[in-house]
Recover the amino acids of this structure.
DNA sequence: CTGAAAGCGCTTACAG
DNA sequence: CTGAAAGCGCTTACAG
């Protein structure tokens, strides 16, 4: 490879080459409009020729500002929340921040340590953590907002709100005549998975329905497939609530592989409104989560905290919407 | 919120509190083993109490090293290459680097400008760009490796290698008896999409087959669905080569919606071996790309460049593997 | 409109 | 084994 790297000029060298002082070059890069056109032109020429760009690390060393935020994710996450990231990223940019995505690994303790290190590093002015983790915000020199999985402030008020579509799903299926249910849960390290399981169990109980049980999966299609393949013949299950669309897809496949029609013999619900699920056959019934709103809202909260402003009000309406598609229908005449 | 942020101590203050010099604290954090246990204990206590962690920006200001690499992606990318990111991230960590993911937006010029700014920022020691973009590596003060979409060094030698499975797919379908083909391409701003289209056209021509044409899509299921819905009745197409699994999923759905059986009437191939495609019905025939190898290899190249070492040899065997599943079969007796 | 001085929080030789 | 001095590349008052 032609690894010809440009020698990195300093602001002093640029100033010397342009015949001005280094402060003037500094002003040039901070878009200070008070430069004389002639001065600007001289600097322009040197900058073009040497491809000079200011060292942002040095700048932030001095200004104590970086204009950078970080969003942390578990690298092991089954799937990265692309839509949320995109919305968060857009919001950050609109507010004048660069956003970097940092994956954090290990157990909750190690993850918290890594986040604290990042917080103290001076690289970023705030952190939005999508990682399930216990962190003492007071231990961090910059604001840390934890979202996605659980939120320390919404806890109690809204903790189960995220899972409330499960209630809606079970009620809907019951209204179609389903009586025996089955839940294939996501990884239990996620509060969202635990909450869905909890609400599932509560609702089944409250409505006097039967639950054939809960399979503890890992968010993967394989876990859905295996769970359904593992059901005994004649178990009577006609309604399956899967942790997400991946699990649901596997569950549908598992059912079909046993000769069960979907939704003729068994109905399946997923979660996330994955695009592929919409085009699958049968198309997946699911829960659409407005990741756009979720990402924007979380990032807006972080930015408010960074600026020392009060937190913006949370979105007034639920970001979840149950969508019924082909994979759900009435149970067979006699189970 | 209890936005109680720890006041950020400096190394001097920690030193004073611990009753040592700041250099000693510096050594403590650089794991210098020559500290007396008693000294270490004193520092330990202060660090614990105040949650002090060194300012990495100041450190790298001085050392001119950050131990950080960046990977840049187009935020508009239809889907983030999660598996590749994960492999690249793992490789970086193993080699002692932190990895940050930065999304870059805008047209190719703006993207190149953004990457150059990042390269000059002092924040990172090297950049792996997954963004299609024209950049002069010589204009960057740190190594920039462009991969995924095209690679400046492999161009000519391997540029079309990535698309060679298309040849294999067309040949396979032809061997089953297919004669009339259709290609639904991905977004043409991607070299991979252009290459697949090119190889498709070449192979169809070379084998004396018929192409009903190429639909230019955007990598989305909807584009696959629309393309198939747009085919006239009696067009005779029995074999569809889709740009990726998303497109293929939409194409299958479009075909089924017209009453065409898959694969009875029409066979469909995708690309990427998406997990959901494996569990779809019919399961998708596809191309498995070893993103693990791709991500590790690209990151290893970047790290070698950062260290001024020679580039590691590329993987000796193809990272692509054609997988035949239910969505592909012989054409109907008479088209 | 532009220049000389101080300092952001560290690490690196160099002494002791 | 530990301390005083210099400096990484910028920006921020403060003069002129």
């Amino acid at each position: 490879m032609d690894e010809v790297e440009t020698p990195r000029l300093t602001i002093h060298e640029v100033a010397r080459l342009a015949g001005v002082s280094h402060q003037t070059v500094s002003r040039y890069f901070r878009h200070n409009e008070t430069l004389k056109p002639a001065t600007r032109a001289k600097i322009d020429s040197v900058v073009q020729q040497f491809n000079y760009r200011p060292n942002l690390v040095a700048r932030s060393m001095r200004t104590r500002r970086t204009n950078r935020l970080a969003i942390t994710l578990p690298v092991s996450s089954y799937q990265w929340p692309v839509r949320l990231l995109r919305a968060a990223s857009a919001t950050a940019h609109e507010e004048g921040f660069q956003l970097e995505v940092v994956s954090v690994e290990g157990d909750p303790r190690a993850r918290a340590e890594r986040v604290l290190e990042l917080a103290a590093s001076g690289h970023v002015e705030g952190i939005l953590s999508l990682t399930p983790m216990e962190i003492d915000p007071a231990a961090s020199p910059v604001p840390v907002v934890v979202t996605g999985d659980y939120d320390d402030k919404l806890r109690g008020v809204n903790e189960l709100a995220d899972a409330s579509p499960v209630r809606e799903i079970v009620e809907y299926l019951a209204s179609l005549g389903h009586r025996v249910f089955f839940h294939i849960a996501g990884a239990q390290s996620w509060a969202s998975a635990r909450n869905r399981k909890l609400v599932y169990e509560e609702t089944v109980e409250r409505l006097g329905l039967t639950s054939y049980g809960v399979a503890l999966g890992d968010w993967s299609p394989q876990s859905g497939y295996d769970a359904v393949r593992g059901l005994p013949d004649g178990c009577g299950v006609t309604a399956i609530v899967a942790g997400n669309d991946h699990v649901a897809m596997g569950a549908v496949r598992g059912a079909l592989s046993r000769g069960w029609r979907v939704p003729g013999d068994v109905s399946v619900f997923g979660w996330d409104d994955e695009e592929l699920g919409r085009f699958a056959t049968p198309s997946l019934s699911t829960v659409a989560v407005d990741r756009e709103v979720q990402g924007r809202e979380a990032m807006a909260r972080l930015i408010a905290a960074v600026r020392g402003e009060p937190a913006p009000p949370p979105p007034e309406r639920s970001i979840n919407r149950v969508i019924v598609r082909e994979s759900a229908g009435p149970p067979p005449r006699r189970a």
In short: Chain B touches chain A through 74 residues (CB under 8 Å). The radius of gyration of chain B is 26 Å. Confidence is low (pLDDT under 50) at residues 1-5, 150-159 of chain B. Residues 20-24, 27, 34-36, 39, 58, 60-64, 122 of chain B lie near DNA strand D (CB under 10 Å from a C1').
